[in-house]
Specification:
alpha/beta, 8-stranded parallel β-barrel, 17 helices, about 45% helix
Length: about 325
């Protein structure tokens, strides 16, 4: 595949993406999500460049080929360190490297990266240039509309101008400010008001920049409306995690134009069994995988029983695939022949 075709493919995939979420979008979660949608772009949890470069924690880059298209999100603010981390990601086979300029947690701020980088667009541009020079795949940025007392209408266009000049061709904008002091990361996801109109204006101001919007998207219908309004992509976070079937099962048809899916949640459970068995043989625990599957039957009869069985029995020593079979029976689905 040529570089041009690869860029086109990843650009198309990013019409719908599942947000990078700490402690949630690990490799088990991504494998599970990929079984539900074959087309959506999946992101890793944020991996810090220092952990890879100084700490040698390259195991954090592990993923399975079945996860493609998959993007690696990096945290950091040192251009040389980010360049090396991006090189590691490209060598491992990721389809995209994303720079986190949106996380507001204290731990991230103390490392001088995440949302605090909204205050340093020139530094972000230097980071993007260095990463692009080091990796032969797309380098993208995920940001907020601003932080603290910044005026988003002023700072966001300047921020985007600098990253575009550095060669960034795709950005994801969480359509809320981040307050670096006074709000927790959870509150920063809910309390600052959404400003979709500002993101729409950025698309008009930067027509050649691929802009995805993030924040407050609760349904696949919401995502389709935003795409129809002219945005290039939509990133869904907690809704995709807690209600994966609702968001991802119809995504391939509604967002990418594929034929409607014929599978159902029980098919996904059975498709996960070989993966789970391999994980257990490698010394893993059942709950490490099934904790990501609790919302699979959300809104369907038996959803509470499904969650109860997985939660109560999935953490036990020696728990195996029989727990999922029992959970399916609790939902009222007969054991597969």
């Amino acid at each position: 595949m040529t570089e041009k075709n690869e860029k086109l493919e990843i650009s198309t995939a990013s019409r719908l993406s599942v947000a990078p979420m700490m402690d949630w979008t690990d490799r088990h979660c991504r494998y599970f999500h990929r079984l539900i949608s074959g087309r959506a772009l999946l992101y890793t949890e944020m991996v810090t460049a220092p952990a890879l470069v100084r700490g040698g924690a390259l195991h954090l880059l592990d993923f399975k080929e079945e996860e493609h298209p998959v993007a690696l999100q990096l945290g950091g603010s040192d251009p040389r360190e980010l360049a090396q981390a991006a090189r590691f990601g490209a060598e491992r086979g990721y389809d995209e490297i994303n720079l986190n300029c949106g996380c507001p947690s204290d731990r991230v701020q103390s490392g001088t990266f995440g949302a605090v980088l909204m205050k340093s667009p020139a530094l972000v541009a230097d980071c993007v240039r260095a990463m692009r020079d080091a990796a032969d795949i797309d380098v993208t940025v995920k940001c907020r509309i601003g932080v603290d007392d910044q005026t988003p209408e002023d700072v966001l266009p300047e921020f985007l101008s600098q990253v575009v000049a550095a060669g960034c061709e795709r950005v994801t904008i969480h359509a809320r400010k981040a307050w670096l002091q006074g709000l927790s990361p959870k509150e920063n996801r809910d309390i600052p008001p959404l400003d979709y109109d500002l993101v729409q204006r950025m698309k008009m101001l930067f027509p050649n920049l691929h802009i995805s919007i993030n924040g407050g998207v609760e349904s696949i219908e919401d995502a389709v409306k935003l795409l129809e309004a002219g945005l290039d992509g939509v990133m869904v976070g907690r809704a995709a995690y807690h209600r994966p079937w609702d968001i991802l099962a119809r995504a391939d048809a509604l967002v990418y134009g594929d034929p409607p899916a014929t599978k159902d949640p029980a098919d996904i459970v059975h498709a996960m069994l070989p993966y789970i068995e391999a994980h257990l043989r490698a010394g893993g625990r059942l709950h490490q995988v099934t904790r990501h599957m609790l919302g699979l039957f959300h809104g369907r009869p038996g959803a509470r029983q499904w969650r109860r069985v997985l939660s109560e029995r999935g953490t036990a020593d020696g728990a195996g695939p029989e727990v999922l079979e029992a959970a399916l029976e609790a939902v009222g689905i007969a054991r597969a022949a």
